[in-house]
Write a structure and sequence with these properties.
Layout (H helix, E strand, L loop, with lengths): L1 H5 L2 H18 L2 H17 L3 H18 L2 H17 L3 H18 L2 H16 L4 H17 L3 H17 L3 H18 L2 H17 L3 H17 L3 H17 L3
Length: 248
């Protein structure tokens, strides 16, 4: 978990592989499901989507075998997040709503917040900004109750993204600055890269190409360190546009 926060993917993968061996020796489907969920999320983070889908489906099957409804719901939530990453918002929403319902029944506040946050993405991706903001605010309120500062940072980031989409750039920058401070305080480098990218996009929209380039280059360095290939591509794409507008 610590290597995950730091973005040290090689060490994270090594520990998960060793954990999988131990869980296999225990022959405990509950333990195996927990390990497979972590492995699936690592594969998602490093953009190995096909493998992530296979792994999360294996985790759900193990959770069903163990009779652990909450663990099964976490699998559904992760499946929704993976589908979001491939642009399948409608399909993702079905799994996230199912995860949210089970989380309510089981009284798992953190899973409720996580699924609401990702449900916000399903609306944001379809430019349903009012609905998206509602989900992000609902999620933030629960994250503050838990508390989960990483979740709070994510909600601040996306509320900033909503404000940027509606043209409220000053409010967007305010949300982003709060999110950036939280990520840096936590030492959460991958989260920091997302905030920096969004800051860069906002400055790009405002025509401040110097600041846009600085933010995207900083995000690019982090994403290369944490092996986020999809994020790296997005930063390179925007840096190309920055160079074009600067006449380079």
């Amino acid at each position: 978990a610590i290597y995950g926060w730091q973005g040290n993917r090689a060490a994270q993968a090594k520990d998960l592989d060793e954990l999988a061996v131990i869980a296999g020796a225990l022959n405990d489907p509950d333990a195996l499901a927990r390990v497979e969920l972590r492995r699936a999320d690592l594969k998602r983070l490093t953009s190995d989507i096909a493998s992530a889908l296979d792994t999360v489906q294996r985790a759900v099957t193990l959770a069903e075998r163990a009779g652990n409804a909450l663990l099964e719901a976490r699998g559904y939530a992760l499946l929704g997040r993976i589908l979001l990453q491939t642009g399948k918002e409608s399909e993702a929403r079905e799994w996230l709503e199912l995860a949210n319902e089970i989380a309510k029944t089981e009284g798992d506040l953190l899973l409720q917040a996580l699924s609401l946050y990702d449900l916000g993405h399903t609306y944001f991706g379809n430019t349903q900004l009012t609905e998206a903001a509602e989900r992000y605010r609902e999620a933030q309120a629960i994250f503050e109750t838990v508390p989960d500062r990483r979740g709070i940072a994510n909600c601040l980031l996306m509320l900033g993204a909503v404000e940027r989409q509606t043209g409220n750039h000053d409010d967007a920058l305010r949300f982003y600055d709060q999110a950036l401070t939280t990520c840096r305080t936590l030492g959460w480098r991958h989260g920091e890269s997302y905030v920096l990218s969004n800051l860069g996009n906002t400055y790009f929209t405002l025509g401040d190409f110097v600041q846009a380039g600085e933010r995207h280059r900083a995000a690019l360095n982090i994403r290369r360190d944490v092996a986020d290939r999809q994020g790296e591509a997005l930063n390179l794409d925007t840096l190309g546009l920055v160079a074009q507008f600067q006449g380079a």
